[in-house]
Amino acid sequence: MTVSQLNEPTPSSVRSVLWPSQCNVFVLTAKSRQRSALKRFFRLVNRLGLNKVELRNDLPSGKVTDDLSHQQVRELAVRYHIEILTINAVYPFNRRSEEVRQLTESLLKEAQAIGAKSLVLCPLNDGSEVPASETLGALRDLAPLFAFYGIHGLVEPLGFPQSSLRSAHQAQTLIHDARVPFKLLIDTFHHHLYPQAADEFSQVEVADIGLVHLSGVTIAVRASSSPMPSASC
């Protein structure tokens, strides 16, 4: 049975996600959900034999849960045996402002209310330079909020040339230097966009990766003196 035969959102509406802490655990993320389609999305995930999802706040409605209450989302999750792993995302997390802090706390409250385990942090992506010290400070500023609400933080480097944080290795270093319990979110699309990604990835500790987005990109294999380590479970 194909996805289209399910009369549900098409394949372009979802992205595969790998949860590295468990082998062969795949998650679907609603990339372009239509208005009030959360129930259909959960039903699709269930009928595909999966049980984990990522929800987003960058859809046209700007809402994580469409027009559903938090209790309704929890009830849907129970009905379709769904675990909500994460909400994507706080943007731009490394712009230290009261507005970003309020957005972060709002999404943390929402994550807690619907039972989501993690919240994604995305860096500024408009071409403005953000010093590493500013990003480190932002991580330290936000970490106590995550601890208070009991939600895990996932830092996602964006590979676009205008991104203020492109490197997974740099993100890992900043997390370590900030002494915060956040992990990395690696997106294969953004990994592909960052020219030094393959060379630097050998320096990334697999244990520091909390989530992987598997995007449909064509990756050109190139020679490297520091080949990417094989990931096996």
UniProtKB/TrEMBL annotation:
Keyword list, A-Z: Isomerase
EC number of the protein: 5.3.99.-
InterPro entries: Sugar_Epim/Isomerase (IPR050417), Xyl_isomerase-like_sf (IPR036237), Xyl_isomerase-like_TIM-brl (IPR013022)
A molecular function (GO) term: isomerase activity
Highest taxon, organism lineage: Bacteria
Domain Xylose isomerase-like TIM barrel residues, every copy: 42-218
A Pfam match: AP_endonuc_2
PANTHER family named among the record's database cross-references: 3-DEHYDRO-D-GULOSIDE 4-EPIMERASE-RELATED, ISOMERASE
Name listed for the protein in its UniProt record: Inosose isomerase
Source organism of this protein record: Klebsiella pneumoniae
Gene that produces this protein: iolI
